[in-house]
Specification:
The structure holds two protein chains of two kinds.
Chain A: E1 3-9, H1 15-21, E2 29-33, H2 35-38, H3 41-48, E3 56-60, H4 62-73, E4 79-83, H5 86-94, E5 101-106, E6 114-117, E7 120-122, H6 124-135, E8 139-142, E9 151-152, H7 153-158
Parallel strand pairs in A: 1-4, 1-5, 2-3, 2-4, 5-8
Antiparallel strand pairs in A: 6-7, 8-9
Helix pairs in contact in A: 4-5, 5-6
Chain B: E1 12-16, H1 20-32, H2 34-37, E2 40-44, H3 50-64, E3 68-71, H4 77-88, E4 93-95, H5 100-107, H6 113-126
Parallel strand pairs in B: 1-2, 1-3, 3-4
Helix pairs in contact in B: 1-5, 3-4, 5-6
The chains are: A alpha/beta, B alpha/beta.
């Protein structure tokens, strides 16, 4: 499978993705799944800027990602799929996407969210999304950078990850 | 003499990962003095999501009257946030790849914001080099 990771990160494309994961995994492409970004040329330009030329960025809505995911998974080079929130990842999983594992990369502090890890804060709805994803047999772990130890979802939700 | 007062020196936000921005601004203070460093406001992206970082940067720009945002990584969250704020604030310049020579040039600079940004970029680029003292090529 060409997609090496399926990541939830509210910063979308940023340093941890491009450098932290991009270099050790030799990522050749990123699939950014976000309905708002996919509908805006300005947003697309924003996220393309600064990405190294050897890394392609593909923009998809949740609906179009479900149509094209198998093509990305068949690509002969490694890639990463990104969503900005748990709801979009849940929609992909429940929409039938063959996603074996999900990485919680960064869901930061916001009103209504409870701290779970240094880089994971969750609202009750987001917890429900993650439990629903896991209930489909998807392995959900938190890991911000490759050098960090992955933390299983149960430990994340129990606040025992760090 | 015309008697007209000089315009206030341009100010800038320095936005970067972890403690980098505070470190850079602190270094400017040590090298160029507190008055120069006072033209710079450090902002970290630590623990902030994308939307929260935009809010923090917008607040910093508005409260300081900054005309420039210096960021670290071109593809980083600080740059993304700065570009979003620049869309709302006409004339706000965003400069990526910040280093200490660049900030020193800006913090000690005079003249128009455009001229200061150009000088800062020149000094920043010129400050990146390989010191080959004692290196052997063969």
């Amino acid at each position: 499978m060409a997609i090496e990771g399926y990541r939830i990160d509210d910063r979308l494309i940023h340093g941890q993705v491009v450098v932290g994961w991009g270099q050790p995994l030799a990522l050749a492409f990123v699939v950014l799944v976000d309905d708002e970004v996919a509908a805006s040329d300005w947003e697309k330009d924003l996220y393309r800027m600064g990405v190294p030329p050897e890394m392609q960025v593909h923009f998809e809505s949740v609906a179009s990602a479900l149509e094209h995911l198998a093509d990305y998974q068949a690509m002969p080079v490694p890639g990463l799929l990104l969503t900005g929130d748990t709801a979009a990842m849940r929609a992909l999983v429940e929409g039938g996407a063959a996603i074996p594992r999900v990485n919680l990369g960064g869901i930061h502090h916001r009103a209504g969210r409870v701290p779970r890890l240094r880089y994971v804060f969750l609202s009750p709805d987001e917890e429900a999304d993650l439990r629903a994803i896991a209930a489909r047999g998807v392995v959900v772990t938190a890991q911000d950078v490759p050098a960090a130890t992955p933390v299983a979802l149960d430990a994340v939700l129990a606040g025992h990850g760090e | 003499m015309t008697g007209a007062s000089s315009p206030a020196p341009a100010r800038a936000i320095v936005a970067a990962h972890a403690d980098l921005a505070a470190g850079l601004v602190g270094a400017v203070a040590r090298i160029a003095g507190d008055a120069a460093a006072a033209r710079l406001v450090a902002l970290t992206n630590h623990s902030l999501g994308g939307a929260e970082l935009v809010d923090a940067m917008r607040d910093a720009v508005q409260s300081s009257g900054a005309a420039v945002v210096f960021t670290d990584l071109p593809a980083g969250s600080c740059t993304v946030a700065a570009r979003r704020v620049a869309r709302e604030v006409p004339g706000l310049a965003v400069v990526c790849g910040t280093n200490l020579p660049m900030l020193l040039a800006f913090a000690l600079g005079t003249g128009s914001v455009h001229a200061q940004v150009q000088l800062a970029m020149e000094k920043g680029r010129a400050g990146v080099l390989v010191a080959e003292e004692g290196a052997r090529g063969d």
